[in-house]
Write a structure and sequence with these properties.
The complex is a heterodimer of chains A (about 180) and B (about 300).
Chain A lengths: L1 E9 L1 H18 L6 E6 L3 H16 L5 E4 L30 E9 L3 H11 L6 E9 L11 E5 L7 E5 L1 H4 L3 E8 L2
Parallel strand pairs in A: 2-3, 2-4, 4-5, 5-6
Antiparallel strand pairs in A: 1-8, 7-8
Helix pairs in contact in A: 1-2
Chain B lengths: L14 H18 L13 E6 L5 H12 L3 E6 L11 H10 L4 E6 L4 H8 L3 E7 L5 H15 L6 E5 L6 H12 L3 E5 L15 E3 L2 H5 L4 E4 L5 H4 L6 H8 L3 H4 L7 E3 L12 H4 L6 H20 L9
Parallel strand pairs in B: 1-2, 1-3, 3-4, 5-6, 5-8, 6-7, 8-9
Helix pairs in contact in B: 1-5, 1-12, 2-12, 3-4, 5-6, 5-12
Classes of the chains: A alpha/beta (about 180), B alpha/beta (about 300).
Chain lengths: ~180, ~300
């Protein structure tokens, strides 16, 4: 199985602008950065959360704590997918109880990852509020979940694949749409 | 691990599989440090713990690991069960499997009992110690503890002291450590040393001081006092004088030596009080790590892709 790209949706500059806007919206919605904690969902939510953290430092001069969440153990499809996926660690630098937690992920699709992330977060404490920031919302939700901050709304067909590449993992920044072809 | 239904020993595991378990165990150790140290991963799975031999540590450790992963557990001990009415191992296990159990953890006094079950049953079987054969999860947690402290296994000198011949802990340690590239030295009285042990890729000696020289890790085995009755060593005092690990003798080892013991400890016999409780001892840490390692094994086996056998 390989990924065949059909079109590039965002280049590095478009991505940077979208992340900058999301960062501003987070500050605006929460009237500052007090009580904020950013939590990136592994894998590609983490570098995105890091960039938001840098932006908040630049715009507001604030050091917002950044956590990393691995949702593998909370997936609802573990019984179906066969080999157990690799479990990585979760690191939350502060107690999230009473905090404004902004979950960050690359693509919002069925909503199942976010469901798992919410369950995982709640095992760590009781945040005052949890908000969701995603770079791309591609539709096709299977659960009643929505994002608070969206980089780009991208209508897609169910079969299509949205691929977010980040410098930290892939060597370049881009969002593309394509499909998986069987060889 | 996707092609593996059971964990019977470290002998049959490939190096990559051992490393995969150790890496996963690290993540599970983090789970155990959370305010709510429990994840929903094995919700709906049922695990039976079959202990035909007494055990404190291993049984509680497995049970905790299962509960931390949200599995349902049933416990079985030989006393007070139908075993005392003469039911065979296979019948006991088939009956338990007929109650829709997904995994069986078994400790048995007969070497090979878990293998026998694994062949006869569709569910996953995990060996929690069989006779004098292997105790794979103990081997894994020992290797894990060493790797946490030293950052690697490759090239370390690891000394295993005690009753090598009857120790399943020693066997699993030898398989695991040599596969990961450690230099393993086994040390004990010649009567408790299996002939031809060198073929497993270890060095054997009955000179403790030579063995300890430059050691990175000393794993002290429990001396089973009942072996003295079978005249394999003359007296506890003599054993202790020749093979007891004391602070004096430990000075030949490296400055950052780790002292390990699988428990239960005979204080003052195989290990002196001050060493067991001393700064180099990681004995209690081994126990903590045991839960994380067993969670990793349960998790990885639960995702195995082996087709159930028919009939």
């Amino acid at each position: 199985m390989t990924y065949a790209e059909k079109a590039q949706i965002m280049d590095d500059r478009a991505m940077a602008r979208a992340i900058a806007r999301i960062s501003h919206e987070i500050v605006e919605r929460n009237q500052g950065t007090e009580h904020l904690v950013l939590v990136g969902i592994r894998k590609r939510g983490v570098p995105l959360a890091k960039r938001i953290q840098q932006n908040l430092k630049e715009y507001e001069g604030a050091d917002v704590p950044l956590g990393v969440l691995d949702i593998t153990l909370y997936r609802d499809d573990l019984q179906q997918i066969g080999p157990a996926p690799v479990v990585r660690s979760t690191q939350l630098p502060v107690d999230i109880t009473g905090k404004i937690v902004v979950l960050v992920d690359d693509v919002l699709f069925t909503g199942r990852t976010v469901r798992a992330a919410l369950d995982a977060l709640i095992d760590f404490g009781r945040p005052m509020v949890i908000q969701l920031a995603v770079l791309v919302d591609r539709g096709h939700r299977e659960l009643p979940i929505r994002a608070d901050f969206v980089g780009k709304n991208l209508p897609t067909a169910q079969k299509e694949v949205v691929k977010v590449s980040v410098v930290e993992e892939d060597g370049f920044d881009a969002v593309s749409i394509g499909e998986v072809v069987q060889n | 691990m996707k092609d593996r239904k059971d964990l019977l020993g470290l002998e049959e595991l490939r190096r990559e599989e051992i490393e995969k378990i150790l890496d996963a165990a690290r993540s599970f150790k983090e789970v155990l440090e959370r305010p709510i140290p429990k994840v929903p991963t094995l919700r709906g799975k049922t695990i039976a713990n079959l202990f035909f031999e007494p055990s404190t540590r291993t049984r509680i450790s497995f049970e905790l690991a299962e509960k931390r992963l949200s599995a349902d557990t049933v416990n079985f001990t030989a006393s007070g069960s139908s075993v005392s009415k003469g039911e065979s191992l296979k019948d006991t296990a088939r009956n338990i499997e007929a109650m829709q159990v997904d995994m069986i953890v078994i400790r048995h006094q007969a070497s090979g009992a878990p293998h026998f079950l694994a062949r006869s049953l569709d569910c996953s079987v995990i060996n929690a110690g069989d006779g004098t054969h292997e105790h794979p999860t103990q081997g894994l947690l020992d290797v894990f503890t060493i790797r946490e402290h030293k950052g690697r296994i490759e090239g370390l000198k690891v000394v295993i002291v005690g009753d090598i011949a009857h120790s399943r802990v020693a066997a699993s340690n030898i398989w695991g450590l040599t596969k990961l590239g450690a230099r393993v030295v086994v040390c004990g009285p010649p009567t408790l040393m299996p002939l031809g042990i060198e073929r497993l890729g270890v060095e054997a000696t009955s000179d403790l001081d030579a063995a300890l020289d430059g050691a990175d890790v000393v794993n002290v085995l429990r001396i089973q006092l009942e072996r003295q009755k079978s005249a394999l060593f003359p007296s506890i005092r003599e054993y202790s004088r020749c093979f007891g690990v004391t602070r004096d003798r430990l000075s030949a080892a490296r400055e950052d030596v780790l002292v390990m013991h699988p428990g239960p400890v005979n204080r003052g016999v195989e290990i002196s009080q001050d060493v067991a409780d001393g700064p180099f001892s990681v004995i209690l840490e081994q126990v903590t790590n045991g839960v994380a390692v067993r969670m990793a094994v349960l998790y990885l086996l639960s995702g195995s892709e082996v087709e159930p056998k028919l009939g």
